[in-house]
Write a structure and sequence with these properties.
Elements (H helix, E strand, L loop, with lengths): L2 E3 L4 E4 L9 E10 L2 H13 L9 E8 L11 E2 L11 E3 L13 E6 L9 E8 L2 H4 L6 E10 L4 E7 L9 E10 L2 E11 L4 H5 L5
Parallel strand pairs: 1-10
Antiparallel strand pairs: 2-12, 3-7, 3-9, 4-5, 4-8, 6-7, 8-11, 9-10, 11-12
Length: 206
């Protein structure tokens, strides 16, 4: 089992037993709050006009340069653009409900193939059409991000997002950042009320 991280913690990533880490899978997961787990609060949400527990959370990757900016249209990996032009970052596809066991969305990163112009890979999750559906992250539970060594399927680290995110519609979950010749992973867990992926990217110069 990998290292369990707390908000703000950063760790160096390396292969178990040493050696250079090459390809990693970044898995993100969440579950919709059920009536039994949500209790009266969940019933109030339904009464207020929510469309119900099926919440389409979308994971995306912002590929940032040394100034923390997106340089172009190929630097955003999401359900509408599943990989970057080099094939170093590949999104495995959209899960529109969060139902089922294990990771809901997975992004594979081939670390040696990430071009030197990219210094940080920031992983964000937003709720698709959150404003129209009257949905927010107070309506999901068990959210996490984890990093797995693709070569041996060993989990390197995991960050469980345990804070309450009531009324929040976007999460900056974590990031991979260069550290000399290697990489670090940082647990972020910051939330906002941005209503779309487009509004999130404006923070990073697009």
């Amino acid at each position: 089992m990998g290292i369990n991280l707390t908000k703000g913690q950063r760790i160096n990533l390396s292969k178990e037993g040493g050696g250079t880490l090459k390809k990693v899978r970044v898995g993100l997961g969440w579950d919709p709050v059920t009536e039994s787990s949500g209790g009266g609060f969940f019933k109030k949400l339904l009464a207020a006009g929510s469309s119900g527990p099926d919440i389409d959370c979308d994971a995306s990757v912002l590929m940032l340069n040394d100034k923390g900016r997106l340089a172009g249209k190929d630097d955003l990996i999401y359900y509408g653009q599943l990989k970057d032009k080099s094939g170093a970052v590949v999104h495995q596809g959209d899960n529109i409900t969060g139902e089922g066991e294990g990771d809901d969305e997975v992004i594979v990163v081939d670390l040696p193939k990430v071009k030197s112009e990219y210094h940080r890979l920031v992983f964000v999750v937003n709720i698709y059409n959150a404003e129209q559906k009257r949905q927010h992250f107070g309506m999901i539970q068990n959210a996490y991000i984890r990093v797995v060594d693709d070569a041996n399927n060993k989990e390197l680290c995991k960050y469980n997002l345990s804070e309450g995110y009531d009324k929040m519609t976007a999460l900056t979950v974590g990031e991979l950042s260069r550290d000399g010749s290697g990489w670090k992973f940082g647990a972020i867990g910051d939330a906002s009320t941005e209503s779309s992926l487009q509004s999130i990217t404006k923070r990073y110069g697009r």
